[in-house]
Queue: 2 jobs
Job 1
Amino acid sequence: MSQQGYVATPPYSQAQPGMGGYPAGFGSSPAQPLYGHYGGQPQSFPAPPTGKATFLWSLIPPVKSSVYVLKVVHTPPTYPAGPGPMQNPQASPTSPPAQQPFQTAPPPTMGQTTLGPPPTGPHSPQMAPPQSPLAGPSMGGHPSMGGHPSMGGHPSMGGHPSMGGHPPMGGMGRPVPGPPPPGSGGFQQPGPGAAGQPGYPQQPQGTESAVTCGSVMITAKLYGFIGPVSWSQMKPIPGIKHVTEDDQAKRGGQVYTTNLRGQVPPLVTTDFTVQDQGNASPRFMRCTTYSFPCTADLAKQCQVPLGAIIKPFATVPKNETPLYFVNHGETGPIRCNRCKAYMCPYMQFIDGGRRYQCGFCNCVNEVPAFYFQHLDHMGRRVDLYERPELSLGSYEFEATLDYCKNNKPASPPAYIFMIDVSYANIKSGLVRLICEELKTLLDNLPREDGAESSTVKVGFVTYNKILHFYNVKSALAQPQMMVVSDTAEMFVPLLDGFLVNFQESRAVINNLLDQIPDMFADTNESETVFAPVIQAGVEALKTAECSGKLFIFHSSIPTAEAPGKLKNRDDKKLINTEKEKTLFQPQKGVYEQLSKDCVSQGCSVDLFLFPSQYVDLATMGDVPTHTGGSIFKYSNFQVYTNSNHFLSDLRKDVEKAIGFDAIMRVRTSTGFRATNFFGAIHMNNTTDVEMAAVDCDKAVTVEFKHDDKLSEETGALMQCALLYTTVNGQRRLRIHNLSLNCSAQLSELYKSCETDALINFFAKSAYRAMLNQPLKTVREILVNQTAHMLACYRKNCSSPSAASQLILPDAMKVFPVYLNSLMKTGPLVGSADLSTDDRAHQRLIATAMGVEDTQLLLYPRLIPLHNMDVASDVVPAPVRCSEERLTDAGMFLLENGRSLFLWLGQACPPELVQRVFNVPSFAHLPADLSSLPVLDNPQSKKLRSIIDSLLDQRPSAMKLLIVKQKDRSEMLFRQHLVEDKGPYGGASYMDFLCYVHCEIRQVLT
Ligand SMILES: [Zn+2]
């Protein structure tokens, strides 16, 4: 960071006392959480600035918490007096213009005073005064943990002798004592009280530096520049590139040891190794802040959301230890009698080891006789390091019959492949492609580590207006088809032979897969059903008494007469009106009931869509997004151009690590509680998160609220317990524990923020809110909350400075980039040029994304390739996502986890074009190029290897789009240059930063 002139506190300069006596390895920075709430008094905001802005930086001397200081210099607007960024062309004439950010009204004229903030500070300080020292780190040691020698491997745990303690009563479902949950959080209407308070110290007014929102007037020459200055000429405004590179430089390649409470992990973009020493790896759990505010008032004041993003099945890299498995035999896991929390490092043993006090509810419990162990002179159990559940953040328990449905052992899950064989899919060759692929793919069904073959059963259905089930019992010479034409009352016509072991029935199944494309070769049926297909899958799993997953390959809107029939309701006229939200609301009724049926059976639905037109994805995607499923979409599918993309997705999807019939519960220590959940989940009550399946890429975002005061001494503890069925049919509990700091100082909270996690929370809450509120309101709330978070920091944590300076907490300095990008995403941008299904799709998939995925989605990687060192294995460093970084003679790769582009400048050197594409020059490149030729030269090899490694890292496959500068397809590419003005609406990063700055000043006045 330093080379950019940023001033940052060394994040680990203050070792945390942490959990009793650990060496200060990775000293945590004292956490400073933010709490943001979509609530708070609506502020009255002026119009966004439309003027071209320039920023000057000044730096403050290093202090404990680093702060950015920007001087904002607005030059007069250069746009025509048109609408501002993110305008809303159809804004209701009745809405009070002054309160709407992104409004359509032209910018206020110069010198307008009604909307502008008060006179601002002196223009003089090039250097801001030093910041007042922040309060010291929270000193809360953690009583329950003892010192920890550096842990080599962990001895695995055996079973357990005699003496059942008391077995758990029932499932995981005991409600935590405490007051009833508050109303759901998120985008709701604000109560009073969050408004910025008066009393922010006014700076002496300087004449030239008066910066008013929207239209202002500080000339650059004031700061020694002549005329308008572009920002690239000056010190850069906070950029994600620098932040990620700095973190990589500081923490990359290191071991991150989780022994300290409240320590902020490296960024998701940083390459690090995790060693579990009492807290869950950040791969499993990340928080928006690692220091919660002690009181609800503080939380409300700063409006930083308190959230955790939990990815319970996150992939653990090969060089990290997989989760240990604990088996307490018939007794089952040991749990607190009162709150039902599972045995973990936060339980404190007392009374010579005969009792333990629960770290979550403080209840004192008897230690079951079989579990008794003596304590050492430090009060720690002498077997501490032999028991994963006493010393690790994450581990698994064997679940007893009490944790199984109807007290019966679970069965291995089944995968049912359901292929739409209507005219379009036969004609396109898709059906044949799928059938061919399945013949080999089914050898790769998920299996337990070390198992020779998978126990997952498979079944096959084809359908158009009616359904065809297949008996593929191994004893048969030929598969048998059974037709169900009454789709209103779906049933499964065969019990035996529908779900089989692939290895045993391979011959019959291959025979079937050979026959299917021919059986329907002459079909002219173009109508399809959809809900009955899902119903059939659930019924089949019910009959087989197992959980599982449906893989549905479908092409068109289901218009055939049957339950769940849909019609085209894509009305572009609704865009930017109050009713736009209806485009994203699923048609309820049949689909809502289906989701419930699926979840109660542990039936996850993965939908592969191949539409050539609108399919009402908002509704068709409803069941997948409530059952832990995924939605893949291949518009205008052609075997020739799209096969690789689709088949890569299908392979990853079939093979990935997954758990079934899951129920998750997040327990917390006293004083706060999980109140709101986002993900591909279903909730029957306020606490139990049900997931028909959860795979290695799915995350659940949880919001926490206070219900009492938190203590700095004991911190904030959370335990996520996930009960699920393995691919082997075993019932298990996966436990993730995390301990955070608490502080009465807001500065602590801001210092421990994690911007990547924060934007994940904002994205999910905004995408949910858009189902109930106009997009304009959702965008306003986003900006409003951001302004509040930043204003609160400025007011309470930074030293007085000129109002013209934009001050950002170090840990949140790039938050505005992400937020601006979020507001320009398809779902939130409100443009008739975007397909409704695409917008709905993006909204739904983001709902289950983890922090890595939202980070990349909102800030794509733009990698320059024209100067790459072909001799090196290193991928060239990404550059800022802005058109300014493109050069006519350049070649760039851009990817965001969903899309992958190779952009070529018009003046791209012919030699490079020749080596990569095997054509003599840019002009010779065919327009519809969609893949790279395999050529035997270093440039071609290097480029293909970069692309392959990117594809390998991402949860879903991406189709490479080759874009020539100035071609029509460039628009698709440009919408990902998120620092620029959006082609479908939305401000540039610079303009947005100006806008946020004005909003902050509004809050402060
Ligand atoms: Zn308890």
Note: The pocket of zinc ion is lined by residues 336, 338-339, 341, 358, 360-361, 363 (CB under 6 Å).
Job 2
Amino acid sequence: MTDYAARNVQGHHAIAADDPYAIRLLKEEHHRFRTLFDAAKQADGAKRVAIARELCMRLAVHMTIEEEILYPALKPVIGADEVDEGIVEHDMGKKMMVEIENLDGTEPLYEAKVHVLGEDTIHHIDEEDEEMFEDAKEAHIAGKLDLDAIGEKMRARQADLYQEIEMDGEIGETREADAEEIPST
Ligand SMILES: [Fe+2]
Ligand SMILES: [Fe+2]
């Protein structure tokens, strides 16, 4: 039985005391994705559909704040390769998410599709934690970018996006990340 969430406390996946705000915010969300994909694996029927929808909404918001705010700030500093790879992985994930959101859970391949979205997402967020965020943190320490200010911008954009979702009445169990959930330095 895969247990993605076991990784949340290991190596660079754990939130380090000196992680700047942007990194803490995104790692906190990565932790939640691992936990939710574990829960999706254990659930079936309507419960699995509810968890998958929750994941798709949260992942869409997470990808948007990374693509709009973090990635463009990182590109000139850590180089295009890691960032471009991240964008391509997001695009693949989004295609699968659209597909999953249009299914009702009774389809023969539903479980497999959620499983593959989980495997691909975990691969992507593990790489962000281990490579991209470490390079970004190094640049932050060297004074080449301000990951605390970038974190504040992402947090504000995240709140706006969740408000839009809530206004559309699609919120379900989804809530914006609670500021208290993100450990402070
Ligand atoms: Fe990402
Ligand atoms: Fe991420």
Note: Residues 82 and 132 are 7 Å apart (CA to CA).
